[in-house]
Specification:
CATH topology of the largest domain: Rossmann fold
Distance between the termini: 117 Å
Shape: globular
Number of strands: 10
Strand order of the largest sheet: 2-1-3-4
Strand content: 5-15%
Structural class: alpha/beta
Largest sheet: 4 strands, parallel
Helix content: 40-55%
Mean pLDDT: 84
Low-confidence stretches: 1-9, 11-57
CATH class of the largest domain: Alpha Beta
CATH architecture of the largest domain: 3-Layer(aba) Sandwich
Order of helices and strands: HHEHEHEEEEHHEHEHEHEHH
Length: about 325
């Protein structure tokens, strides 16, 4: 009888001890592994290549744009739902840009990379398995000599095709914010239509239709608005310009009656100044909007403000009435 009583006392003591110990175990310990598993699951979803929708209200899309105007278009449609970076840094001429090995590794982490296409990003095949969207894929490409002319972004109407392609990709990745992107797209397209209307109206009554740009960046723009483009350096702003080319530009300017020679915002104006001095003219800026400087960023310049700057200088050059 005494042995049974001792056994019963021992059993009660063990139960009481277990109960007391359990009461001091934090509940977070019991849930730690589940939380870690959930976090790991979310990370693996975000990193998979064929994942479908990936964004949430708390997670912005990570996007790269090849160079400035593409960045600006994406930012105006995605706004605060996207984290956008340019591949070509601010102030760098994009024609001859090459990404570093470190940049390539970073690019492969992006949800999507938007490029202009039409041969402008000759380095794109080095990126590897990243998701790349070519914004010019649905646009008939003009030729610039023996190569495609990539400067499509200078035609506001063709930019509407870019914006639709950007929009389609954003809503495929982030469908729950479709209404948000739709509103931004409509706002952006209205600005493009107004820009097109302003250019058309202001360049209608002009004494001249010909202008001399620094390089052949304005073919699509000229075709849209009934102008004729000539250039100093040809298809590339980086081309070597020999004395004969300068002499030809001087002769052309005199034949056309042009007294303004254009330079670019990222080009040393020495050659343009030489030609302008020979014809008794002056130099103005006609920007191909291939880049933006740190100073322009500080002044909140964007695609639209730079296009309107171009319009102002074209009105002077072509001697327009408006």
């Amino acid at each position: 009888m005494r042995d049974n009583y001792k056994a019963w006392i021992s059993f009660c003591f063990i139960v009481l001890t277990i109960t007391l110990i359990s009461s001091f175990i934090p509940k977070s310990i019991a849930t730690t592994n589940l939380s870690q598993n959930n976090n790991n699951s979310n990370n693996s979803i975000n990193e998979s290549e064929d994942q479908g929708p990936i964004s949430s209200n708390n997670t912005n899309l990570k996007i790269f744009a090849s160079f400035y105007p593409i960045y600006d278009f994406i930012k105006k449609i995605g706004k605060d739902r996207v984290d956008v970076s340019t591949i070509v840094p601010a102030g760098i001429e994009p024609h001859d840009f090459e990404p570093t090995a470190k940049q390539i590794i970073e690019l492969q982490k992006a949800n999507v990379i938007f490029i202009n296409g039409a041969g402008f990003e000759s380095w794109i095949n080095k990126i590897g398995s990243a998701t790349v969207v070519d914004l010019s894929k649905d646009i008939p490409i003009d030729n610039l000599g023996s190569a495609p002319d990539p400067h499509i972004w200078l035609d506001p109407i063709l930019v509407k095709t870019y914006s639709k392609t950007i929009f389609d990709k954003l809503i495929s990745l982030d469908p729950q914010n479709t209404d948000y992107y739709t509103n931004n797209l409509n706002e952006f397209n209205k600005k493009l239509e107004l820009l097109n209307s302003d250019i058309s109206m202001n360049l209608t009554n002009c004494d001249l239709n010909d202008f001399i740009a620094f390089h052949d960046a304005f073919g699509y723009f000229a075709k849209r608005y009934g102008l004729t483009q000539h250039s100093i350096s040809g298809s590339s702003p980086e081309a070597d310009i020999n004395p004969q080319r300068i002499a030809d530009a001087i002769k052309l300017a005199e034949q056309l009656g042009v007294n303004i020679i254009f330079s670019e915002d990222n080009i040393e104006p020495r050659l343009s100044n030489t030609i302008a001095n020979e014809i008794g003219g002056k130099v103005l800026i006609l920007s191909p909007i291939e880049m933006i400087t740190q100073e322009e960023q500080t002044l909140n310049k964007d695609y639209f403000s730079k296009m309107y700057d171009n319009l102002d200088n074209l009105k002077i050059t072509l001697r327009c009435e408006n």
